[in-house]
Structures are given as C-alpha cells and as structure tokens.
Amino acid sequence: MIIGVPKEIKNNENRVAVTPAGVIELSKNGHQIYVQSTAGLGSGFADEQYEEAGATILPTIEETYAIAEMIMKVKEPIEPEYKLIKKDQLVFTYFHFASYEPLTKAMMASGAVCLAYETVEKPDRSLPLLVPMSEVAGRMSIQEGAKYLEKPMGGRGILLGGVPGVRPAKVLILGGGVVGTNAAKMAAGMGADVTIMDVSLPRLRYLDDVMPANVNTFMSNEFNIRELIRNHDLIVGAVLIPGAKAPHLITRDMLKEMNPGTVLVDVAVDQGGCIETCRPTTHQDPTYVIDGILHYCVANMPGAVPYTSTLALTNATLPYAIQLANKGWKKACQDNRELLLGLNVINGEIVYEGVAKAFNLPFAPAEKFL
C-alpha cells in the first residue's frame, strides 16, 4: 500500500503520525511510505532520518495527499486539507467529528474512508489509541494549570503544593478515566489537595484504593459540583463519551460561584468541552477570561510536548496501521472489531452512531460496506 504522511498544519501542532522507526516496520511489510518534507522536524526527526529508514520525501502537502492510498495524520484535517482528500482514500487520524459539523460534512463530501483513532475500541471498552494522548493531556492539565494559577498569568496567585504553614491549592477533577487519573496523580505528586469526581461507584472505589492520601473521591452530580467549585482553585474537565459530544458539567451560571482567578482546564475541548463556556484555543493564544475565571482550552495539548507525544502515539497506532496496510481497510476491519469501531465515515455516509446523533444526520452500520 502507498502511505502518505503529511506535515500537520494545525496551529502549533508539532507531532507527526509516523516515526522513522515506524517507516522501517511498514517498509518491512512491503509498503511504500511518502513523507512530506519537514513533517517530523517538530518532533525531532529530520528528513534524512526518514530517507535512511526507507521513506521517500515529497516537497508539498498536495503531492503527499495525491499519491497516497492511506493518509496517516495526528490531528483532524483542517479546511485547506479538505479539497486534498480523495474518494476512497483511507484517512487514519484523530477526527473528533462530534464536536465539529463542517469537518463531518466535508469528509462525507470527499467520499473518503475515515477511521478515527479515538473510537478504536477494545472488548473491555478501553480506547487504545486515545489512551497515550489522554495520559499526556491529563498530566499536562496540571502542569499548565499550576502555571496559570500564578498571578502574572491571570490566576489567583496560589502555589499548587503550598509550603509549610500554608495550605496547598485545591484541585477538582471532573472524570475518573485516563485523563482524570493522570491529572490526579500529577496534582497529588505536586502536593495539592485533590478531589476526583466520577459517576461510577466501582471506578471511585478503584481510585480510592490506588490514589495517595491527598486524593479524595466524590460522586459526580450537579449538586456536588456546585458545592465544590466554590472553594477549588484549579478545575480540570476530563469527561469523555467515546465518539460523542461531551456533556456540560459546568454551566455559564456556575462561574459566578467560583473565586475570581480560578483556573479551568477543559481537556474535553476537542469533543465539545464539558465546560459550557469552553471554546477551542491554541498554544499561541491559550487562555481567555469570562466572569473573572481563567479558561485554558487548548485543543491539542500534547502538541506542546511533541517528542514525548509522537513516540507515545506511534507506539499505539503502528500495529493497527500495519494491519490496515497489509490487509486493506475492509479485510482489516472484518478481522479486527477494534478497527471496525474506528470507522466513522465511509463514502459519504456516517457509520458511527454518536456522530450521527450529534448532528441529527442519517446513520448507516459500517458492516454494510464490508
């Protein structure tokens, strides 16, 4: 199969979908890999390293899309890329369709086959291609939150871990999944007073068992959220409903109940956000203030640490990419239900129910195309 790896053009997105090591593995399976010039530079991989691994370097994004049967990316295509995607081309990347209708309709119009990293799902309901970036984003949410709690950055002027004789910051984490667990570990390690909320009692029991003593668990509901936001300094939104839009757990009217300078970090922003006042921001302009509350809503947080993120992501995606390239997407999805669940759009039809529901559009089962 001919595989194209374009350079990411989203604002401050420095990750790359395939490393030189990945090129070697794909080449060993008999595939041709075309990498756009400088695609790996942001993650620390030079064109020469790709060439040594067996890839062909192409000068432009247009040539990379034009030659490829399968496109491997990190982030969803943005508007300048829509016209480059061809009918029947397989695009393997993060899409997060449910949060952005224009992208969904553009991919339907392209006639491409869109297989989304974020909905590839194992039998135990885990999301193997979302986990590594959720781990990065969860840890970064605390790193960034701690920075923006500083007064010059617009926060309350609170040191996350406090000092002897002064209480540490209070951190509230909404969601006890991969993002929330990693955020809680990081915040606890920095000495904060942490509360993690979830709707699942079994999950809260598990977290209560494994977390250090400065992490408390609490049932998530509107009453409890309203109580806790009044005295917490950093609030992290870490809610995920696979393939669907995130629910708003913090509404606009709740902001006035928070202390001025409270920092909100919404990791769920690329699925629409679990904070009503959330809107996607970039690493170039990451924050804004509403009602005295600082919002950090960068939609590609792991893009700020591309070396770590690229290695973590490609460790997870490469085995699936090899299956798709070796067998073709139809046979690979027939043989592996995990990949079947990753299919979101095929030849103009939505085949993932959560996306269809998000925009009230027709849904067709993916099996119809296999």
UniProtKB/TrEMBL annotation:
Xref: PROSITE patterns: ALADH_PNT_1, ALADH_PNT_2
Family designation: Belongs to the AlaDH/PNT family.
Gene Ontology molecular functions: alanine dehydrogenase activity
Domain (Alanine dehydrogenase/pyridine nucleotide transhydrogenase NAD(H)-binding): residue spans on this chain: 149-297
Annotated catalysed reactions: L-alanine + NAD(+) + H2O = pyruvate + NH4(+) + NADH + H(+)
EC category name: oxidoreductase
Organism whose genome encodes this protein: Marinoscillum luteum
Keyword field contains NAD: yes
UniProt keyword annotation of DNA damage present: no
Gene3D superfamilies (UniProt xref): NAD(P)-binding Rossmann-like Domain
Protein name: Alanine dehydrogenase
Domain spans labelled Alanine dehydrogenase/pyridine nucleotide transhydrogenase N-terminal: 4-137
Signal peptide start and end residues: none
UniProt-listed Enzyme Commission number(s): 1.4.1.1
Keywords: NAD, Oxidoreductase
